[in-house]
Design goal:
The protein is an alpha/beta fold. It has five helices and seven strands; from the N terminus they run E-E-H-E-H-E-H-E-H-E-E-H. Strands 1, 2, 3, 4, 5, 6 and 7 form a seven-stranded mixed sheet that branches. Strand 4 (84-88), helix 3 and strand 5 form a beta-alpha-beta unit. Bound molecules: flavin mononucleotide.
Length: 190
Amino acid sequence: MLHGECRAGRGGAVVEILLVTGSTRSGSTNTAALRTALEAAPDGVTVALYEGLAELPAFNPDQDTDSLPAPAADLRGRIASADALLFCTPEYAGTLPGSFKNLLDWTVGGSEMHEKPVAWVNVAPEGRGNGASETLRTVLGYLSTDIIDAACVRLTVPRGAVGSDETIEDPQVREGLRDVLRTIAKHVVG
Ligand SMILES: Cc1cc2nc3c(=O)[nH]c(=O)nc-3n(C[C@H](O)[C@H](O)[C@H](O)COP(=O)(O)O)c2cc1C
């Protein structure tokens, strides 16, 4: 497994969802939400956490060739083999963190995102983080992904809610994440 990948899920998995954080911060609320989703996966869903964000080089169109830098090739391969993607990103300066936009830029030159079912969870308090969601919608629209609106929700996670195991105990957040994964899976299965 690459980049410290974690996998979870229960028997008879049919839908594989790749979880992608937009934060590189240790103790990140966004990454904690996705780690919690690893534990909250309902039956029939397998989830994997992508943890290579900080290893991606700065996007350079000159390197967007058949021989991609290894981290970018890994990213595209992971996206290709997933049935759907779930993003969770903070807002920086009214938009997406640069490192996360960099990740998205590495996907533009490939076909992996085309019609890929996608959703995002916004963990910011009500009234905050909207710029990140709006920008994400713009970029994912540009990439011709299949945005699952019913699975794009806000589940506020205060910093103090992240436990020492880097997950969130709050049962409402856990149930909310399980619902999101269930909604994505239903959309994929059709
Ligand atoms: C450089 C920087 C810029 C930020 N800009 C915004 C912003 O424009 N709007 C906002 O709501 N929060 C902003 N924040 C707050 C972060 O979104 C917030 O701390 C979030 O919890 C970070 O996510 P994480 O816990 O996953 O690292 C900013 C934080 C940093 C470090």
